[in-house]
Write a structure and sequence with these properties.
Length: about 325
Amino acid sequence: MKAFLTRETYNTPMLTEMLLAAGIELEVRAEPSVCPPEVLEQKIGQVDALLTHTEDHIDRALLSKASPRLKVVANMGIGFSNIDVSAAREWDIAVTNTPTEEAFAATAEATVAMLLSIARRIPALHVERRAMDCDPDPSFLRPTATSVRDKVVGIVGMGRIGSRVAKIMHGGFDNRIQYFDLLAKPDLETAIGARQVDLATLMQSSDFIVVNMPLSEQTHGLVSAEMIALMPNHATFINTARSELVDEDALVARLNAGSLHGAGLDVYGPAVNHITADNIALTSHFANFEDRAYTDMTQLVADNVIAMLTTGRALTPVTE
């Protein structure tokens, strides 16, 4: 059996060893860049398993060229919006992702870290000092940080990541939690007093707004220009989910106008290249990129491929 990995992953030797022990030979593309479409088109017709990253675009046209032997597209990541899952199902190709508990915890920790950083103006202070030869003159006229304690956190998407953020912010900083989600979360409401509200209420009454909602047809563009306009001027905005959830042009306009405290974005489109505001953190989709999370995710990629090719049943199949 043969598998193809579109580029090196976190621990490729471990992945290779695990697959080889199950009789699966792994070919690894040597270049570190996103895999070109022509390479994907060639390899998808030759292998039993395709191991992808969330930047690899696996659409219907590509899947139509898959070999009948292809049984699984194993995605390295919690998300899977880069893969046409319904098309894969038509050709009886399983799609898997890596929703490990360590990955959820890592993303939640990164979300909180980014929130604290922006609230305390650390990115702006860092950039200011790096541009100087000595400390700036002390002045009470300078923009201040904002306190984190005793505030209201609005969480857009109270899933496995959002719920962890809620617990950290409530337990660590005595924050009141309100959330927008397609489903109610009665356990969290009982445990930490979280309150479900509509999105407009959340946007206009939260000090910190955190986006952790999965991307789907239903949630695409959810945080619209209209919603962005509702945020109070002192608000801090954090997105560690998907850029397509947010009208980034509207967000950038508010940041550049100085009418938001700041923003931390782990995911974003080209609009961020036009940000002139200083209290900004951009982390290039690295929220869950840590040792424990990526070790577990790499192991799960291997386990999914092995399970699918040896038993016909994946461990974490994507069902949409």
